[in-house]
Design brief:
The protein has about 400 residues and is α+β, with helices and mostly antiparallel strands. It has 14 helices and 16 strands. It has an 8-stranded mixed sheet with strand order 1-5-6-11-10-9-7-8, sandwiched between helices. A 5-stranded mixed sheet has the order 13-12-14-15-16, sandwiched between helices. It is elongated. Histidyl-adenosine monophosphate (HAM) binds next to β6, β10, β11 and α11.
């Protein structure tokens, strides 16, 4: 017998109810992004490896340990994208939007690849819904992005907590790092091996260590939020104020440093207490230096990405209003009226309409075969009384109501 081929570890098919949920999420999150002034962008899955090395950072785990990197047939060093921001920034520069001083707001969704150890909520191929905005230095744009994520989560009824930090800038971060390193040197023998490596390669990442004994020792380290320069401090205070004024609650965590090196000023994560240890459902922040760092003209930028698989764990398919409506008439005279009613439903729900009159039972069987969940019919009595007969094929509930009162 030939051994059947399985999907790769950490890579999943998305089928049945999961695929319905997946498209439901993308469609509605996209609509919200558009309402916020973002338009859709698609960039390639494969990019030059150097793009990620330079943007995400040589010392990050993503670049160091997790890249799907290979040499292609043309001897190019390429890599399956581990995240979406770098490609979008490359596109912004390549199309000379930086030179034109253009502001752009883009959203995207798609597969990302990280060679991590798979576990619940952690895949090697996963999907993100993200957005990047360029050319807005105002901290109101940081708030705009955070509000958009909140609107997305609220739309799907996803409970969440916002965690906020400021990572300073090229003025206040370097002296802070120096102080931090001097303090870390004192306790380094008691820190784990990874922390010891990071003291040299990327000291602020030490603050993010998940090992309990390290966490305990790191509690007494100086906080970046106490060392911010005037400009960063002003922005951070203003962001907190804007969020508070708009009833958006948050926690400040000065150890939130993020796993990607391009951030400055605002950094944030949204976490859920309902999905286990991989609890970050979205992350993002400001990256005002990245466009310039990748060879473009200095441009302010801020963005985020939501982990789609993680948020789909928090939405139940049964909670979605995905009713399919079936409209029909038992007499030819009823067709015109039921056709008009079906028009009221099409904007919100999948709606089927039968153009020829049939018996009640034929309509019900037909609707069932077509996958309808709600059947709305007009017979002689309904026409006379200006009513409509409605049957829910899932719950078997049925009733007759005034024609004008039947709405979705
Ligand atoms: P990130 O925090 O690395 O940020 O990823 C964003 C989200 O993707 C995470 O919060 C998580 O929900 C999801 N995620 C990450 N890794 C995995 C995995 N292995 N399996 C399943 N889900 C995962 C970024 O990628 C930045 N590009 C976000 C950004 C955009 N910052 C500015 N603009």
């Amino acid at each position: 017998m030939v051994k059947s081929i399985q999907s790769l570890r950490g890579m999943k098919d998305i089928i049945d109810d999961d695929s319905k949920l997946f498209t439901y999420f993308i469609e509605n999150a996209s609509k919200i992004a558009r309402n916020y002034g973002f338009s859709y962008i698609q960039t390639p899955l494969l990019e030059e490896t150097a793009l990620f090395k330079r943007s995400v950072g040589e010392s990050s785990d993503i670049v160091n340990k997790e890249m799907y990197q290979f040499i292609d047939k043309g001897e190019n060093d390429v890599c399956l994208r581990p995240e979406g921001t770098a490609g979008v920034v490359r596109c912004f520069i390549q199309n000379k939007f930086d030179k034109a001083g253009a502001s752009k707001r883009w959203f995207y969704n798609g597969a990302m690849f990280r060679y991590e150890r798979p576990q619940k909520g952690r895949l090697r191929q996963f999907h993100q819904f993200g957005a990047e905005s360029f050319g807005f230095s105002s901290v109101y744009e940081d708030a705009n992005i955070i509000m958009m994520i909140k609107d997305i989560f609220n739309f799907f009824g996803i409970k969440h907590k916002l965690v906020l930090n400021s990572l300073g800038c090229s003025v206040c971060m370097p002296p802070y790092k120096e102080t931090l390193v001097s303090k870390l040197e004192v306790i380094k023998d008691d820190l784990c091996g990874d922390c010891n490596k990071r003291i040299i390669t990327n000291p602020i990442r030490v603050l993010d260590c998940k090992i309990d004994s390290c966490k305990e020792l790191l509690k007494d380290m100086p906080k970046i939020t106490d060392s911010l320069c005037q400009d960063c401090n002003k922005d951070f205070e203003q962001l907190k104020q804007i969020l508070t004024k708009n009833n958006i609650s948050f926690d400040i965590d000065s150890n939130l440093v993020r796993g990607l090196d391009y951030y400055n000023k605002t950094a944030f994560e949204f976490v859920s207490s309902e999905i286990g240890s991989q609890n970050a459902i979205a992350g993002g922040g400001r990256y005002d230096k990245l466009v310039e760092f990748l060879g473009g003209k200095a441009t302010s930028a801020v963005g985020f990405a939501i982990g789609i698989e993680r948020v789909l764990e928090l939405i139940k398919y049964s909670d979605i209003n995905d009713d399919v409506y079936y409209f029909g008439a038992m007499t030819d005279e009823g067709i015109e009226k039921i056709f008009s009613k079906s028009y009221e439903f099409k904007a919100k729900n999948k709606t089927l309409i039968e153009y020829s009159s049939k018996s009640f039972i034929k309509h019900i069987n037909n609707a069932d075969k077509l996958g309808a969940t709600i059947v709305a019919l007009i017979g002689e009595d309904e026409l006379k009384n200006d009513t409509v007969f409605v049957k829910n094929l899932k719950t078997k509930e049925e009733f007759t109501i005034p024609f004008k009162d039947f709405k979705n």
